[in-house]
């Protein structure tokens, strides 16, 4: 079988250079274009790119996607800034008959995607659920986007199962030790030198607890998910969000 | 709605007395018979038991089940010793038209069942998988039955996904620190005062790890699963093994 | 050697009844008096008690101690409510020549005492330190007293080593996910059905983390420390606070 | 104050190049010599090196140390292969009046040193102790040297406190799930893609457990300990083994 012809946009960036390496090393993909800020997008079509991987910037991602859609190139998008509004714009570009797939992936780490899914499944069977996320101290936001998203999924699963509020007799917490409440799920954020990106989702009921923990040490952890996206996109026409459907979850 | 009429066999045992308490306390179940070794099984039919919960002994469980099937009583079985051979015997008793449900449950802890299921799902996405189970020091077997079962499920999931052997460069391990190999999955057993029953399933791939941990502190952790079984058995004609199908997994 | 003659005050309480059991079972201690709210303290002197264990109530503990000091009875105090002011009152009762020991113990769990001590030692070697404490959901205060005390010890050890502030680039935390700040140490409190009392102290520096975790499952965990206090108090004239000095820390 | 003049032997190696970076960056140390296999040791004396850091090979370390002792240069040794015999040879070179310090460090990670020390302190207070070490799958030995050393320290501390054997009712363990026994302490070794170097020491007694965990993600974790050694060696004449004495433990 011919290898998939891949172009990486933002090839010199942190994620981009990892993607260049991963696509180059995999047996079934071939790196045929590296596009940086100063390069014309025409490099993609001239190189016969089948799948473009966008790892650029919120300012440029929509222009890049417009070009891909216009030139019949599938796109895997790891850039942030593609929200609800942007998604419907992309859908309108694709129209109904399109053969093009656009796969927007908020998190390429397969472990993180599984952890979130498992949390959603478990949520309905436990009285209590809380999240502790831990990251390097250079992170500006607390809690992490992944933790907030996980909290919302847990909250919705509990509501669907008609669970009542979680038990919590706290009457005195002058300093806010109980952390953030995201849709009724308490979320705690640790910031610490030596850490990278970690999340622990804790569930408890009478006499037992269940913990789903994900540790991400390295940008390389995103590459198996990125390659999975590159391989599967031809079978996913239209807009897809997240790796979940590709994992059969 | 009328509460479900429940009889507990082995009512004075450790699990049995917990079941008596739990069935008595739940709003939708009613405890109408407590049967111990010296009591006649006729107590079940005389009390109009709809669901019998067997928490007795491998020596008596099959006789108890024969009585239940004969008298049209659903049975939830927490007793060990119901293997492949016993299951097919029960199936032959039930015949094809039976309205009776027999639900054999190796583990009532919902958290443990979920942990095992999550491990099975995750197995195919990671290069490495190992299990560390930790129990109180009065346990005679190592590894635990749950750990061995989890190892086999992981091994089968890896085989189905055509994963190769796990990476392991160990060439010197004179004392056996790498632990047991159950179907190619390394399993480690910790025995320690202060612990009850715990299991950690670890998965690793390039740059990330995923951990599914279950902690069981108390026999009470089995009661939510036991009540779930009592409530669902009417919808499960024939023989069912494990809580998984009841959890929609 | 003669066993130590012990009286338990608050013998019917939760901790008290555990103490009655533990003192009764140990080979080198003898339970000679059980005093409850309605009993006269004279029961202690009449029974020839050498060491009184006070597990009563903040309202009664100072009267009990006055009686013990007056009657030459050593006292081990597990009751809360003995603060700085009370301690100096006790010291004034004892005077300079006293042969009596009063040992006030905020936490009898040896593991908790060690965890706190280890945290104090480690604090000066790491850029970052945070605490995650987890308890059953019936707890009214957040964070736990132990967590607050540990945070203060870490903060003091950092100041003594002239460490600067911990690195933390958080600029956006609208819901308070970063938790409580106790003397500059972030403290997070989890409340969850199924848990008892747990604390994790995390330290991080370039490329490594150190974690000290204590899990307390049961009131029985306080008994080894309580017996240690009973055995050692004869060698500790005057007022002592905490088990640390008895552990040689 | 003048910065300490440092020479690195094995400057091109993995640890060596990290040391070159760390010594160069610290305000109170100055890198004045980088010595590799092909360079003469005279480069050390010619550059006026005060402290040599040996990160070479078991074959060359003793020759390097002989040169340092002869030329009045303090030596910090991270190279393996300096055992009991080598240590007494070095002591004989130094003689009694020497002003030279030789500091042999099996592990520069301060967190690992603390974890080991804490384990030694805790050992006497708990009925049970076990070790789970986890490493990347390219490691040839199981268990790790650190785990074996920690096990021996725990075993000696238990013997000194006259503790009996740990409770363990295991009668059936056909596959060796209970792991290695190093001096009566069970040690378990996990090997997994995505991990680096991790160790968990578990202690348990009635109703409570204490866990000391060390995670090492990166060679950089050795640099704070290496710089500490460089700074303190002038105050440590003669031969010292390990960072413990420098940490005041």
UniProtKB/TrEMBL annotation, chains A, B, C, D:
Enzyme class: oxidoreductase
EC numbers on record: 1.17.1.8
Record has NADP as a keyword: yes
GO MF terms, alphabetically ordered: 4-hydroxy-tetrahydrodipicolinate reductase; NAD binding; NADP binding; oxidoreductase activity, acting on CH or CH2 groups, NAD or NADP as acceptor
Major localisation: cytoplasm
HAMAP family linked to this entry: DapB
This protein's name: 4-hydroxy-tetrahydrodipicolinate reductase
Species of the source: Actinopolyspora righensis
């Amino acid at each position: 079988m011919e290898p998939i012809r891949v172009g990486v946009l933002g090839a010199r960036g942190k994620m981009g250079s990892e993607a260049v390496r991963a696509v180059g090393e995999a047996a079934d993909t071939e790196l045929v274009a590296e596009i940086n800020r100063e390069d014309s997008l025409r490099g993609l079509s001239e190189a016969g790119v089948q799948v473009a991987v966008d790892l650029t910037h919120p300012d440029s991602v929509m222009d890049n996607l417009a070009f891909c859609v216009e030139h019949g190139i599938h796109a895997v998008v790891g850039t942030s800034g593609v929200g609800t509004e942007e998604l419907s714009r992309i859908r309108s570009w694709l129209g109904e008959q399109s053969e093009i797939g656009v796969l927007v992936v908020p998190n390429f780490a397969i472990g993180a995607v599984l952890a979130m899914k498992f949390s959603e499944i478990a949520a309905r069977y436990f009285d209590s659920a809380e999240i502790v996320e831990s990251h390097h101290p250079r992170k500006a936001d607390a809690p992490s986007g992944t933790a907030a998203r996980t909290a919302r999924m847990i909250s919705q699963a509990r509501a669907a199962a008609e669970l009542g509020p979680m038990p919590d007799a706290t009457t005195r917490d002058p300093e806010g030790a109980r952390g953030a409440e995201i849709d009724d799920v308490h979320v705690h954020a640790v910031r610490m030198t030596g850490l990278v990106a970690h999340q622990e989702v804790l569930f408890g009921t009478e006499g037992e607890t269940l913990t789903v923990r994900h540790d991400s040490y390295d940008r390389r952890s995103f590459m198996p998910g990125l390659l999975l996206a590159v391989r599967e996109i031809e079978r996913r026409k239209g807009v897809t969000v997240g790796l979940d459907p590709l994992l059969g979850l």
